[in-house]
Predict the 3D structure of the following.
Amino acid sequence: MPAFDSLIHQPVRLQIMAALTALPDDAQLEFVTLRKMLDLTDGNLSVHLRKLEDAGYVQVEKAFVGRKPRTYIAATPAGRKAFAEHVQALQAIINPSS
Amino acid sequence: MNITQDEAKLSLETVERIQRQARRSVAHGGGPWHMMVWGVVWFVGFLANHFLAPAQAGMVWSVMAGIGTIISFVVGWWYGKQLRRPMHDARIGLFWLAWFVNSSVIIYLTKVYQDSTAMSLTIAVLAMFGYVVMGLWLWPPLAWVGISVTILATLSYALMPEYVNLVMALLGGGTLFFSGLYIYRSWR
């Protein structure tokens, strides 16, 4: 039985994980791009990212592009695994027989 | 936590929508812009081949290719800022560098530069080879555009050489521009 993950299931965190896991394993998404994509505020996104980071599901990295500081976010292997299992758990709810 | 089937279905629909949006808008976001820019470059360049003397057409090509290269770099930089993939980006950069060097050698060895039409077509076909490689590697629509335009260039050069520049301006440049525009609009 795939594992349902209540941390990921929260709507904003589900969207964050969906966006990050859609990208290749080596890709890091910029904070502002993710915020615009999901139509969130800085504060809201930061709070949910911190929870996902504490769980080891995402990795947050600060970098400089030119002179400007930027924050890049990537799903960790553990985050990708947990998200995949969560999606399987949702699918199992819809199709209990499969 | 108890989840109903409707809630689970809604969650899965959200996941699918966000993942599609992320892949399209970020991972391949620059592709349509490159196609539109080079479509315009080709349109103007091949029209210049048809209507102007070879020396003047060469000048037009140089200016347009320069503008196209600068815009391509800006687009690449803009999307690269949003999505970091250092090794991947380096590989793409090295591919196009190798493409440029090899293409220059091919043009030198075949002396194709002696005929401005053959020169433009050769560069166009070599560029489409790059599109096919990028398509196979990254994003299939590029491969289809590359194959289609290569066939178009070859057939028009073989069957109606006197109109080949006009065909390449309208259909070659047009294919690039409108494919890019269609993909860009369908992603929004």
